[in-house]
């Protein structure tokens, strides 16, 4: 059955069928051939129960928050401000790509939205200033992955919903690894450009007066992030309520910068509807597929297979890591999460591992899937913004950052407190 699911999933995806539809089709197939009783009679109830959660309301709010900031021009102002502050480092403007992605990750919660935002703003600068297209575009694609790690993260919300794990604790757990990844991206970029200065373009130093004047474009975003995360951690608001507050804050920032218009609001709302519909179709389709897989006994079979191998807890984790790396080459990230979580997480928890810690480890592995071909979404987003050159440039450019993610996964396995330190003290 495992081979049936894997081959069926890959085969249907190659036909360019939407991921959510693919998950339903696989569920129907398993229901017909592998389960001893018909499950379709309960499909309506399953669809309703898998989507009827107040927690999931946070998703459209966070998507709308990011849409408002992007479409109102706040992203462009933030990028220009960060350029003035950190382009003196070896690598120049590439660091502004990573820093902007980090800041928008802390508000939008979406990797694809973050990558699209930074790529749209930054690519014209790369061509004008003569940066190496590989490293420049690779940094944008990698920086965009931080959108699902640094809170608030839509993927962490989905993980918490599916595993019944505390979302505020997941947000806390993702903060240090997310910021550490951003710092490591900057460090790797600087080292590469110190060895090969021609890849980094011109290092620019701005007068202190211009740097200070740029703070007016950075401080509102920092305050917005503080409000969203602070209200959650203080217990003043649930993630859903904090997301609603964040939308109001994003609108106020856009209004202060003069970016609010009827057309901007129309585009923001339409973008929110499209992205949220895609996410919910995947969540509901995966819930149905997981229900059929459980009814067919796949979870028990996989658990018995791993237990029969006689692996230690560390050996089990390494096998799970390998599974996610391989699947990440072929399956879209959100689908990868929602399909595997109900099967893998119980196995990992049974080995004595903390579900909060494993959620962060999974996110790091899913981040890698965003920038590994052939289905790494961020690769296509960045290439689409380039409008010229080969996709190979972007694929080669992300290699150093992929290695950084592997190192972070290894560090999390060796030192779980990287993720568990903040949740344990707060």
UniProtKB/TrEMBL annotation:
The UniProt entry's GO CC annotations, sorted and at most eight, read: plasma membrane
Cellular localization per UniProt: Cell inner membrane
Give all residue intervals belonging to the TRAP C4-dicarboxylate transport system permease DctM subunit domain. Answer: 8-418
Q: Which InterPro entries match?
A: DctM, TRAP_DctM
Membrane topology of the entry: Multi-pass membrane protein
Q: Kindly list the residue ranges recorded as spanning the membrane.
A: 7-30, 50-70, 135-158, 170-193, 214-236, 242-263, 275-298, 310-327, 334-350, 356-382, 394-422
- Its main subcellular localisation, reduced to a broad class, is membrane
List, alphabetically, the Pfam families matched.
DctM (PF06808)
Residues in the signal sequence: none
Molecular function (Gene Ontology), one example = transmembrane transporter activity
Record's keyword terms, sorted: Cell inner membrane, Cell membrane, Membrane, Transmembrane, Transmembrane helix, Transport
Family of this protein: Belongs to the TRAP transporter large permease family.
Q: What does this protein do?
A: Part of the tripartite ATP-independent periplasmic (TRAP) transport system.
SUBUNIT field: The complex comprises the extracytoplasmic solute receptor protein and the two transmembrane proteins.
The protein here is known as TRAP transporter large permease protein
Q: What high-level taxonomic lineage is stated for the organism?
A: Bacteria, Pseudomonadati, Pseudomonadota, Alphaproteobacteria, Rhodobacterales
């Amino acid at each position: 059955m495992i081979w049936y699911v894997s081959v069926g999933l890959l085969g249907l995806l190659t036909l360019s069928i939407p991921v959510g539809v693919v998950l339903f089709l696989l569920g129907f197939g398993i229901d017909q051939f592998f389960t001893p009783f018909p499950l379709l009679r309960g499909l309506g109830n399953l669809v309703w129960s898998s989507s009827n959660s107040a927690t999931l309301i946070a998703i459209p709010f966070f998507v709308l928050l990011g849409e408002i900031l992007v479409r109102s021009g706040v992203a462009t102002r933030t990028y220009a401000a960060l350029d003035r502050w950190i382009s003196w480092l070896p690598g120049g403007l590439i660091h502004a790509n990573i820093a902007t992605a980090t800041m928008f990750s802390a508000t939008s919660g979406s990797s694809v939205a973050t990558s699209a935002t930074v790529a749209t703003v930054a690519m014209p600068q790369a061509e004008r200033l003569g940066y190496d297209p590989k490293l420049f575009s690779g940094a944008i694609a990698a920086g965009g992955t931080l959108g699902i790690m640094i809170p608030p993260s839509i993927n962490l919300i989905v993980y918490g919903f599916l595993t019944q794990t505390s979302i505020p604790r997941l947000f806390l757990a993702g903060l240090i690894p997310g910021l550490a990844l951003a710092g490591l991206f900057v460090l790797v970029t600087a080292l590469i450009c110190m060895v090969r200065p021609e890849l980094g373009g011109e290092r620019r130093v701005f007068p202190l007066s211009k740097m200070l004047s740029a703070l007016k474009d950075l401080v509102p975003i920092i305050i917005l992030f503080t409000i969203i995360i602070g209200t959650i951690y203080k217990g003043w608001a649930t993630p859903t309520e904090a997301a609603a507050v964040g939308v109001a804050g994003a609108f106020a920032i856009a209004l202060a910068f003069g970016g609010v218009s009827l057309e901007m609001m129309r585009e923001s709302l339409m973008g929110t509807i499209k992205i949220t519909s895609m996410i919910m179709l995947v969540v509901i389709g995966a819930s149905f597929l997981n229900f059929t897989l459980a009814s067919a006994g796949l979870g028990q079979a996989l658990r018995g297979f791993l237990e029969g191998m006689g692996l230690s807890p560390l050996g089990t984790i390494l096998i799970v890591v390998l599974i996610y790396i391989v699947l990440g080459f072929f399956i879209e990230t959100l689908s990868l999460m929602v399909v595997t979580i109900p099967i893998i997480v119980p196995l990992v928890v049974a080995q004595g591992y903390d579900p909060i810690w494993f959620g962060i480890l999974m996110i790091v592995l899913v981040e890698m899937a965003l920038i590994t071909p052939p289905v790494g979404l961020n690769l296509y987003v960045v290439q689409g913004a380039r409008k010229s050159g080969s996709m190979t440039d972007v694929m080669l450019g992300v290699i150093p950052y992929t290695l950084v993610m592997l190192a972070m996964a290894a560090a999390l396995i060796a030192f779980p407190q990287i993720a568990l330190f903040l949740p344990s003290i707060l």
